[in-house]
From TrEMBL:
GO terms for cellular component: peroxisome. Its main location: other. It is found in: Peroxisome. Residues 6-44 form the Acyl-coenzyme A oxidase N-terminal domain. One of its GO terms (molecular function) is acyl-CoA oxidase activity. Residues 187-346 form the Acyl-CoA oxidase C-alpha1 domain. Belongs to the acyl-CoA oxidase family. It catalyses: (6Z,9Z,12Z,15Z,18Z,21Z)-tetracosahexaenoyl-CoA + O2 = (2E,6Z,9Z,12Z,15Z,18Z,21Z)-tetracosaheptaenoyl-CoA + H2O2; hexanoyl-CoA + O2 = (2E)-hexenoyl-CoA + H2O2; glutaryl-CoA + O2 = (2E)-glutaconyl-CoA + H2O2; octanoyl-CoA + O2 = (2E)-octenoyl-CoA + H2O2. Its cofactor is FAD. It comes from the Eukaryota. This is Acyl-coenzyme A oxidase.
């Protein structure tokens, strides 16, 4: 994939969205005209969808593309201040083209959002073209290497053939030809699928740095009179870091699965079979949100577990955080993505299962749950026996929790409707439950994929340590979400107590293998770019060397002494 998972770069959008969008939505003629020069970096493009006034609500985007049959052109226009394209990466100063998402108007009718290739800068001089006002949106939280920009279009004319027409078309007389499926023009599924793998990489980097550093950092006293212990020997340090390590492995397997699923289903789509598109959309939207939220929080846990040096840029952890955190916002804001998965997939599937439909894919468990509801409940009604050792029984527990929360969300909507609320109000007043249902569904998918992966591991020793990680991931998730399991009657308080005890045992079991498990990510020092995470563990010498190289140390007496301190002293 041409997506660069490392540091943000001005060409990220060109490589990660402009080229893939052409691949997915351009005709063969357009591929010839645009893809080849774009591949050779003659054309440098970005993906300009978000506007100052709208990022999430695509149907609310205001940029227009109005077809003029007399000249066989589209007129691209930003009608209001809020319609100015805002945020696209590489737009400010790097790109000379943009794929602009605009509301298509032809023969007096609006046909919704479509993609148009718009030249924005002269190919030789790089000067903005007539009618194009373009620039950088200014300093951001991070991503300082990327010129996220703004684009205001003032009645800019482009040829008819600049509309990406693999699916929808406009004939020379202005007739609009619908796409085989309206959903094909949404896009973004590719990059959301790739972001799942980026979550895994961010976790792998962060826990490699924190665990290696925790193995070389000695601090305080564990036993009076004895040498200061490695901080990795503290149970609290293990409790912070080993679940992150387990999640890094879990998300690595999920990232592989997501990539494979994307490839499989997008192949079907290119062959004209759109049946799996809803599953791909729901899975990519949900897992993108689930894994980025989890990784975002875990990077901060790793940084803080390194004490003061974690706050130094030499650790690389601040940069990893700053570069990763926008994944919770871009490519679909996480809450909105969770709501998409719940409202457009889980509740719909729940209702189909409730009328006896056999479901396939990641929601097949809802059919099982629906059948279960029809069977008489056991008198005890209590939680099933809990094994803190049996991974398959834990997978089933997560499955039942997901089914329970999907049912709770669906019933909440029903109750709101019975209170007389409109459909829209009923959904909005159930949206907290909808997000919880999506979260539980994604959590089940992650645990299940982790356990499924173990079946593919032949080496007994590797399988054993991965099984310990999988157990820790599942039990830590159970402990962190015990309220859900208790509320669903899937866990008792004594069982919850046993889970906590088992987690402590697993931390102890993992301690001897912790460093080897992060070494296994095989992230070399250049890729980690971290003094604390160095493979040789020679932290202090390199920390001192790193500080010595700081620009402020270029002179023994900084010019600020002469410019400010000395004059200030003389005035006091
Ligand atoms: C190397 C790369 C570096 C990357 C750096 C960062 C680059 C960042 C780039 C960006 O951020 S690009 C902009 C990203 N913006 C978004 O993701 C916008 C999010 N909003 C939406 O996607 C939509 O507004 C919405 C939330 C899905 C709602 O849209 P709408 O109101 O039109 O649809 P619904 O009524 O909810 O659903 C209609 C129908 O369509 C299905 N669907 C929705 N989205 C997709 C999709 N992407 N793919 C397939 N299908 C989709 C949805 O399930 C509904 O289906 P049915 O229920 O009708 O069957
Ligand atoms: C670093 C970075 C790079 C980006 N790169 C690009 C790019 O290259 N191209 C591009 O087109 N865009 C890009 N974006 C823009 C990005 O896609 C949008 O910021 C994102 O889609 C969120 O939309 P928004 O900013 O309008 O937030 P909003 O949608 O306004 O979200 C604000 C709040 O409102 C809530 N909210 C919104 N709608 C709902 C709803 N229906 N239900 C419940 N809550 C809701 C959200 O959950 C959130 O809490 C980038 C953004 C960033 C930060």
């Amino acid at each position: 994939s041409c997506v660069h998972p490392d540091r943000p770069e001005p060409l990220d959008l060109h490589l990660g969205m402009f080229l893939p969008t052409l691949l997915n939505q351009a005709t063969p003629e357009q591929m010839e005209r645009f893809f080849t020069p774009a591949w050779n970096l003659r054309i440098i493009g970005t993906y300009a969808q978000t506007e100052m006034g709208h990022g999430t609500h695509l149907r609310g985007l205001e940029t227009t593309a109005t077809f003029d049959p007399s000249t066989q052109e589209f007129v691209l226009h930003s009608p209001t201040i809020s319609s100015i394209k805002w945020w696209p990466g590489g737009l400010g100063k790097t790109s000379n083209h943009a794929i602009v998402l605009a509301q298509l108007h032809t023969q007096g009718r609006c046909h919704g959002l479509h993609a148009f290739i718009v030249p924005i800068r002269d190919m030789d001089t790089h000067v903005p073209l007539p009618g194009v006002v373009v620039g950088d949106i200014g300093p951001k939280f991070g991503f300082s290497e990327v010129d996220n920009g703004f684009l205001k279009l003032e009645h800019v004319r482009i040829p008819l053939d600049n509309m990406l027409m693999k699916f929808a078309k406009v004939e020379p007389d202005g007739t609009y030809v619908k796409p085989p499926s309206a959903k094909l023009t949404y896009g973004m599924v590719f990059i959301r699928s790739m972001i799942v793998g980026q979550s895994a990489l961010a976790l792998a980097k962060s826990c490699t740095i924190a665990i290696r550093y925790s193995a070389v950092r000695h601090q305080s006293e564990l036993r009076p009179g004895e040498p200061e212990p490695q901080i990795l020997n503290y149970q609290t340090q293990q409790h912070k870091l080993f679940p992150v390590l387990a999640a890094a492995y879990a998300f690595t397997f999920v990232g592989q699965y997501m990539k494979d699923t994307y490839r499989r289903i997008s192949g079907d789509i290119h062959a004209g079979d759109y049946s799996q598109l809803p599953e791909l959309h729901a899975l990519s939207a949900g897992l993108k949100a689930f894994t980025t939220w989890a990784a975002n929080a875990a990077i901060e846990v790793c940084r803080m577990s390194c004490g003061g040096h974690g706050y130094s840029r030499s650790s690389a952890l601040p940069d990893i955080y700053v570069e990763f955190t926008p994944t919770c916002t871009y490519e679909g804001e996480n809450t909105v993505m969770m709501l998409q998965t719940a409202s457009r997939y889980l509740v719909k599937s729940y209702r189909q299962a409730s009328v006896g439909q056999r479901l396939q894919g990641s929601v097949s468990y809802l059919s099982e749950a629906a059948a279960q509801r029809l069977r008489p409940r056991p008198v005890s009604g209590g939680a099933a026996p809990l094994s803190t050792q049996d991974l398959l029984s834990l997978v089933h527990l997560y499955q039942r929790r997901a089914a329970s929360l999907v049912e709770l969300a669906a019933k909440s909507i029903q109750q709101e409707l019975q209170r007389g609320r409109s459909q829209e109000e009923a959904w909005n007043h159930s949206s907290i439950d909808l997000v919880r249902a999506s979260d539980a569904h994604c959590h089940f998918v992650v645990v299940k994929l982790f356990v499924d992966k173990l079946e593919q591991v032949d080496d007994a020793a590797v399988k054993a340590v991965l099984s310990t990680l999988a157990l820790l991931y599942a039990l830590k998730g159970l402990a962190d979400n015990s309220g859900d399991f208790l509320q669903a009657g899937l866990l008792t308080v004594p069982q919850a107590t046993r889970v906590s005890a088992r987690i402590k045992e697993l931390l102890e079991e993992l301690r001897p293998d912790a460093v080897a498990l992060v070494d296994a990510f095989d992230l070399n020092d250049r890729k980690l770019n971290s003094v604390l995470g160095r493979y040789d563990g020679n932290v202090y010498e390199h920390l001192y060397e790193w500080a010595r190289q700081s620009p402020l140390n270029a002179t023994e007496v900084h010019e600020s002494f002469h410019k400010y301190l000395k004059p200030l002293r003389s005035r006091l």
